[in-house]
Structure formats: structure tokens, C-alpha cells
Amino acid sequence: MSADDRDPLPEITLPSGDTMRAASRYADVRQVLADPRFSRRLRRSDPRMARGADVSDDQYSLLNMDPPRHTRLRRIAAAAFTPRRVESWRPRVAAIAAELAADMAAAGPSADLVGAFAFPLPVRVICELLGVPERDREQFRRWSDAALTISTADGAQRLAAAREFRQYVTALLAARRAAPGDALIDALLDAQDEDGAVFSKDELVSLTVTLIAAGHETTANLIGAGVFTLLSENSAGSSPAPMSDGVVEELLRHDNPATYAMPRVATEDVDLPSGRVRAGETVLPLLTAANRDPDAYPAPDRFDPARAGAVPHLSFGHGPHFCLGAGLARLEAGVALTALFTAMPGLELAVAPEDVPWRSGGLIAGPKSLPVRW
């Protein structure tokens, strides 16, 4: 359903049974994400997506901070994600993508693209960048799936997974401190702002957990959904190699993997373009709906790379919580699609588009599997 089909600021019932306002129009979502009168510091009494512990309970996570604390820690983290550093990762990302695409092509003539390529690529990339041993990488998908689920039945599972995840990352950081290298995790350990401020132990653990969980789930689903769109549109064969920035940006708008941003609570009455939010009310910014708002994008359901950049999409958020890994996600998506269609130029869907199963009802959207052939 597109943004013009719904009440712009309805009250919705969450899987937890709690209710909150939902912002679906582009202008409303953009303001909620950037307006300092909306806070990420939710109280335990505020509405929650799910029962039990969730990401909003992590007091050390950048996701749950407001300025000035958020500003300080974000500045430190940004020192490890400079454009030059991200670009330096391109050769390794390209090598991993080419290897996976070649393996998939050799095993052909058909495969589940999600299992063979879309998920393994970002898992390998983020784990290599963070210095995670290969033997431990499969564990991260289980932990991440538990962390990102919003099923009301999974509160205990989420809590147990979060504890295991943090224990593992704590040990990983200790090992890297004892024997440093040149991975991203070492850059984070060394990162500081111009005043010499550094992360605390708990802050760095939370940041690393977020990078691993969000860093592979979102990119994997972007690649899967992006390939689905390109094949459904019959435009993959005509797409340039390397994949153009316009194609990647339009895929991010059209198929953004994060369906919503983290809820915000209004610290005072705030007038949005579509109406007033009262102090104390919680708002859920719906990214998918905003990216399909016809007031921002003519014919919003049409995939059109020519429109990329005319109105910036909100797939990486907006404002102080803009995605720290946006540059890496863009790089991975472009490199992945280029490698895939170079190795298998005859790639096509092996089932009708309507028969592709999709994840639904959670933070992350994308195909559960994507049968393809070549």
C-alpha cells in the first residue's frame, strides 16, 4: 500500500500489543528522522515493537542515543568509515563477489540466489572486515535473525542471542587488542575524535554487534530484492557493467530492505506536514512507504534508474542517525550485481515472479529464496 492510500499519521497496533503513531509520507518521515524534538531514548513504559528485550534496551548503542552523547560517539565511529577507507575495501569485496559468482555458475545451471550468493557475500565481507574467524561466521546469522525478529514469542530467544552475541564480540575485541591487525575492528579500537575521545568497552561492543547484524542482513536482502527487480523488469541484461550508481540508488529506493526506522518519542508537541504529534507520543517512521510516496516520486512503484538522486531516498535514514555503513552498502551492492551478471549474463528467474516467497512482518524485507537459472 502506498503512502497516499493511508491515514498519514494513523495509530497502529504492534506485535507487542502496544500502539503508536505511524508516519508514512515522505515529508513526515524525513522530519521525524531529523527533528531533535523526536528522541530515540525510549523509556520502558513507552510502546515497544515486541515483548521482551529488544535493541531499544541497549543503553550503549548509537541507535538509542540523542545528541550530545550521540554526536560524540558518532564522530568517533565515522573516523573508521571515511570514504577513502571504504573505497580501499573495493578490491577485496570484488574478489569475494567474483569467487561466489564463479562458484554459483560452476554449480549451475540453477540455484537459490539468496543462499548461494546474496547472503554469503555480505557475511563474508563484514566478517573479514571485522576480523571474525571463518569458523564463526555461520553463527552470526542465527544471532542476527534473533536480534531482528519482532515475533512476540521470541523474547527469550532474542535475549539469549543478544547475550551470546555480546559475549562473543567482547572476546573478539580482547583478542584484537592483544594481537592487533589492519581490519576494520582494529580501526574502531584505535578510533578517536579530534579531542582524543574514544569508545568505552561497552560502546564498542554494541557498535560491533550492530555492524555485524545490520551490516549483513540489510545488504543481503538488498541484493536479493535487487536481482528480483532487475530480472522481473527484464533490465538486467541492458544494465551497464559495472552497475551504474543510478541503478543502485533506484534499487535502494524501490527495494529498501529496512521497512521502518527505529521509533521516536516526541519530547514536545511537534507539527508535521500531515498533522500534530503530541508530547510523549511515539512515532514509527515507515521507510518503505516514504520511498513510495507519490508526492515525492511520480509513479513510485515503477523502477526507474533515471530518477535516482532527484529526491534522496530514505533507505539509509536521514539526520543524525543516517546509516554509518551506507558507503559500504552501496559499494557491496554495485560490486555484487556487476559480478553476478558478468558471470551469468543469461540469468533469469526460474519461477514466476508471484511465486517468489518473501519475508514479511519484521524490520527486514526481502526474498526468502530466489530460484534462478542461466
What does this protein structure show overall?
This protein is an alpha+beta fold and 374 residues long. Helix content is 45%, strand content 9%. It has 13 helices and twelve strands. Strand 10 and strand 11 form a beta hairpin. Helix 6 runs antiparallel to helix 10 and helix 7 packs across helix 8. The radius of gyration is 20 Å and the shape is globular. It starts with 10 loop residues before the first strand and ends with a strand. The model has no long low-confidence stretch (mean pLDDT 89). Keywords: Heme, Iron, Metal-binding, Monooxygenase, Oxidoreductase. It comes from Actinomadura barringtoniae. This is Cytochrome P450. Pfam families: p450 (PF00067).
Layout: helices, strands, pairs:
Elements: E1 11-13, E2 19-23, H1 26-34, E3 38-39, H2 69-78, H3 83-88, H4 90-107, E4 110-112, H5 113-118, H6 120-129, H7 137-148, H8 155-178, H9 184-190, H10 201-232, H11 245-254, E5 264-266, E6 270-272, E7 275-277, E8 282-285, H12 287-291, H13 326-343, E9 348-349, E10 358-359, E11 366-367, E12 371-373
Parallel strand pairs: 2-8
Antiparallel strand pairs: 1-2, 3-5, 4-12, 5-8, 6-7, 9-12, 10-11
Helix pairs in contact: 4-6, 4-13, 6-10, 7-8, 7-10, 8-10, 10-13
Biggest sheet features: 5 strands, mixed
Number of helices: 13
What quaternary form is this?
A: single chain
Query: Which band does the percent of strand residues land in?
Result: 5-15%
Compute the gyration radius: what is it? 20 Å
Which segments are poorly predicted (pLDDT under 50) over 5 or more consecutive residues?
none
Q: H/E series, N to C?
A: EEHEHHHEHHHHHHHEEEEHHEEEE
Query: In angstroms, what separates the terminal alpha carbons?
Result: 33 Å
